[in-house]
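We now fix the convention by which a protein and its fold are recorded. Think of the row as the fold of the chain written in a discrete alphabet. Here is one such record, which you should read through line by line.
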Amino acid sequence: MCVVVLWVSGCVTPTLPEAPIWDSEAMPQQLLKKGAGEGPAWDPKLGLLFSGNQHIHRWQPDHGLQLFREKAGTNGLTFDNQGRLLACEPAQRQVTRLELDGRLTVLSSHYKGSIYNTPNDITTDSLGRIYFSDPRYGNRSDMEMKDDDGSIVEGVYCIHLDGSIERVITHEVDRPNGVLVSGDGRYLFVADNNNNTVDGAHKLWRFRRKTNGSLHLNSRKLIFDWGTSRGPDGMVQDKLGRIYVAAGLNTDNEPYETRLPYPAGIFVFSEQGMLLDHLPIPNDEVTNCTFGSRDLKTLYVTAGGSLWSMRTHVPGDLIWPGEQP
């Protein structure tokens, strides 16, 4: 049963966009109360996949919740341009691809001989290059990723078309979380979310991509800074280039984070960083979002294990399933 929740904009003051963001008179709906932890990804046949309680679950509007992959230990999920499921597996400290025939391929588990910290979020461009973040939250005693000077690295990596791995971000952000290649392929957005360190970063950055998939590091642009509130996590983009970002907090997490000035929800930005709107979600913590449904005009949001949906005016810009008939 769906629960309709009325919402208000709270203390966030958005700027009116040129085109509507939400469908007329739409309200967010709670679809599930538990099980939806992270990494929502949409497939027209499978429905919505997401990570939760160490499993990958499958949810369909007409069939409810099902177990898709048991004990997967995943976080971020996305589909590549062939409809294969890409996954960050922090429990196994690796990145995998679920082939169309059901085989599981490990795409990367080490970089220059060192095992990853805990791969977190994943994105891909239209050609098939894969980017993933590798932060570490919690216990840091077994971290192996270091730079040439021996300093710990929480980086972002690119799996190139030939399978080679490149660290594209080393120390340019504090603690990378969500990653997103823009729909036009020009940019990589990186959520910088250090939520368990006093004065840690709570920012969204944009980097310009090179044609070979590397980044112009000197192009780093600050899109938004949440200050002392919880920083950005997962994100997605619509066909007008607007970015929908999961962020904010409803309960103070002192001394690291505060509820104000940005309560939990989905923050919608222009590609240049103008805050267009804020959709409050009552559950902490709001972790990720993606578009789905046949017309790609349903925004699905994972928050504190719960699953929410909100109808939008413009469809999402996804690599898969791409253009809809």
